[in-house]
Structures are given as structure tokens and as C-alpha cells.
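hiii, so i know i said id send this last week but things got crazy w the move. better late than never?? heres the sequnce for the chain we talked about at the cafe, plus the structure i predicted for it. fair warning i was half asleep when i ran it
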Amino acid sequence: MTNLERYYNKFDEDHRLTTRHGQVEFTTTMKFIHDFIPAVADTNGIARIADIGAGTGRYSVALAREGHTVTAVELVQKNLSVLESKHEKVNLWPGDARNLSFLDDESFDITLVFGPLYHLHTKDDRLQAMSEAKRITRRGGLIFCAYVMNEYSVLTYCFKQNHIAEVMAEGKLTADFHTTGDDDQLYTYFRLEDINALAEEADLERVKIFAADGAADYMRRELNALSEADFQHFLDYHLATCERLELLGASSHVVDVLRKW
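okay and structure toks below
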């Protein structure tokens, strides 16, 4: 069993996006998916959507219930079993984002890559995942790629949770506090320049980039203490500011929306 499988076998992925900080991420991301669907859907408003690294299907299920044709690919068997148990109209495949040979070329209007780039540690692996997402997306279609951000990891794990001394001693940070990836760690963390470079090498055009959750992951306790009305104000604030470039790098998650030509 891989580190990734061991992690998700213990982690309640189905619950994460229903928490308040998870609701910020889900609501924001769905808002932008909905913004773009009309531009790529058929005349009935139906889009063909691939969810690569679908987890337990939070996005797949929501989009399928809206009537879209959804294909979900997931590497971790536990997550795939949870998604299968929901008995939704989602086409399910076990698979790795780096090899989607079971999916046809240019068969999707929108491809979501919301998990794989968190866990691929080499440039070659990330480019292979991007290449496969690009291959299955039709010309003029869109690829949504999600990233976990470097500064979020440094601020929370190194300083808030007080692991900075051990991290520095193990050489897991560069002199300018960029995390160094290796096969033993679960996540790979990005800065905006890393995201820019990957999109450029994949030869994809950016049409939008936004913070999926902004400050929400830093504020879990505070968000839980808010009334429903005040939490809605926070959501409104986040949606109003989530595209501000000066705030993107400190978000927990950033989503890059790319067009294939």
C-alpha cells in the first residue's frame, strides 16, 4: 500500500468539503465551474465532464445531479468504493492521472484535476498528468487544475504547529522558504511561479486563476463560531476577493483554469 493509500484510508475525504472551511472551497470552485459551463456545453446546456482524482465524488455527484455527463477517475480504492456506494449517475474508473488510456481523445468539454497535482512530486509526473488531461479535453475545452500552496504549508505546519526547527534541520525548506519535494512526503506545494511554469510547459492558455478557499483554512475555529448570516458574509467577502493576485499565494488551494486550443 502506498503512502497515498494509507493516508486516504484514514482520512474522511467525504466529510472535508462539508465543513465550513470546506464549504468555502466547494462553493467557490463550483461557482467558477458554473460560470464556464455555458461556453462549452451543448445546445441543451449539458457538458461532458471528467473528474480526475475524484476522491469520494463531491464534485462528480453534484455535477451529475445537475444533468451533466460525468466520468470520475480515482486511484484510491477506498474513495472509489465510497463514490460507487452513492449509486449516482457517474461513470467510474479506477486509474492514475498519468495514464488515462481508457478515455478517448478530446472526449470532454471540461476536465477537473483537483487532486493529482497535490501528490505528484516530479516535474515529469506533473507534466504527464497535464498531458493526459489535455489529450482527453476537446479543443476549446477547459482544464481546471488545483494546487496546494507553499506559503500555506509553511505558515501552518512550520509555524502554527511549530515544526520549523525539525523542517529546517531536515533540509526540507530552501533558503527562501520554498518546500523541497521528495517521494516520502504526501504533498507537493506550489508558488504562483511554479503554477505559471507548468501551464506554460503544458502549452495551455490561462483564462482564470482563483483562490479556492483563501484564508478559510487558517480560520477553521473562527468560521465554525460564526452565525449562518455572518458565515455568508465571509463567503461573499471571499468570492469578491478570490481573484486578487496579491492574495493568491497565501491561499490554501489555488485553481488554474486553462484552455486547450
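btw Residues 97 and 164 are 32 Å apart (CA to CA). thought thatd interest u
miss u guys!!
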